Amino acid sequence: MKYLQAMRVQQWSKNLLVLVAPFAAGDVFHSRILSKILFAFLAFSFAASFNYIINDLKDVERDRTNPKKLNRPIASGRLALKAAQILAGLNLIAAVGFTLLLPWAFALTLGIYILLTLAYSYGLKHEPIVELLIVAFGFALRAIGGATATHTPSSSWFLVVATFGPLVIVTAKRIAEKQSQSAISVRPVIAQYTTEFLRLVLTVASGITLTAYSLWAFSLNSTHPFAEFSVITVTFALFRYIWAVEKSSGEAPEEVMYGDWYFLGAGVATALLLVLSVYAHH
Question: Is residue 149 part of a domain?
Fold first, then answer.
């Protein structure tokens, strides 16, 4: 159990973003595509776990003084430093192994992700704005990875949504953390932001995301307006997420998403509308 906790497997759900591009293209149910999506999901998951462990090893002394992190396997001593280093290496090997089964473009995407997250762990997480963009782009790279793994052409609007949508997620979380004094001790960079600045970023990112999604939805060649209707559910889900994260005072985004039935309902409705739009005529 301590090994899985160190790998933070509960956060592997973020890597389901590799589904987005092939799903939107109408190819996700092809067996050949599904196998590539699975390999991409596992490659990103093990790469993410590698980076989580490296980050915990680097911050082990500081984590031991933090009430929110001192019970982590490495900080608490339940997982020895040498064992954690070996575990990190095994995760990196697994990530590379699955990457070898996929096109070179995916390998490039994953390589950029690993380098960015390592740079984040080794100092850039303390740089305002830079850290926001790195975390947001990490989400975008997952979606791009799904496209490169399956040779799925990506529209310009898809790439815009994949970039600015995650920025909404990250910025909303920073605002919630800004409101929590304990969160500032966990993430010192929060002290360098003003709430007004973060709300400006959130407003701009939300506007760009909804505009780009709307343009993508209306560009689909479908005889039914299901995709157009999904603009309503996506807008509701986005606003509900922002509200839920701010109310929760900085909980992990995946915990907020799974714990809010309105958000989940909007997500299911959006998926259903897109299935009807993209797959009904296939």
Answer: no
Using N-to-C axis directions, what is the helix angle for 195-219 and 226-248, rounded to 10°? Answer: 160
d(CA 161, CA 167): 10
Do 282 and 241 share a structural domain? Answer: yes
- My answer on whether 87 and 179 are in the same domain is no
> 152-185 b/e with 16+ CB inside 10 Å = b?
bebbebbbbbbbbbbbbbbbbbbbbbbebeebbb
Question: Which domain does 280 fall in, by range?
Answer: 155-282
DSSP H/E element including 119: helix 104-121
Q: Which one, of 102, 130, 96, lies nearest residue 116 by Cα?
A: 130
DSSP state of 13: G
SS3 267: helix
Q: Rounded distance, CA 282 to CA 269, Å?
A: 20
What is the number of domains present in the chain? 2
223 lies in some domain: yes
CA neighbours closer than 13 Å in the CB half-sphere of residue 197: 10
Dist. CA 209–CA 167, nearest whole Å: 9
Q: What is residue 126's DSSP assignment? A: G
CB atoms within 10 A of CB 269: 17
Q: How many angstroms separate the CA atoms of 33 and 24, rounded?
A: 13
**Judgement on whether residues 161 and 238 belong to the same structural domain of the protein:** yes
pLDDT at site 80: 80
Question: What string of DSSP letters covers 36-50?
Answer: HHHHHHHHHHHHHHH
Q: What is the pLDDT of residues 209-223, one digit of tens each?
A: 999 999 988 887 666
| Residue 61 exposed, middle or buried by CB count within 10 Å (0-12, 13-18, 19+) | exposed
What pTM value is reported for the model? 0.84
pLDDT tens string 54-74: 988 887 777 777 666 777 877
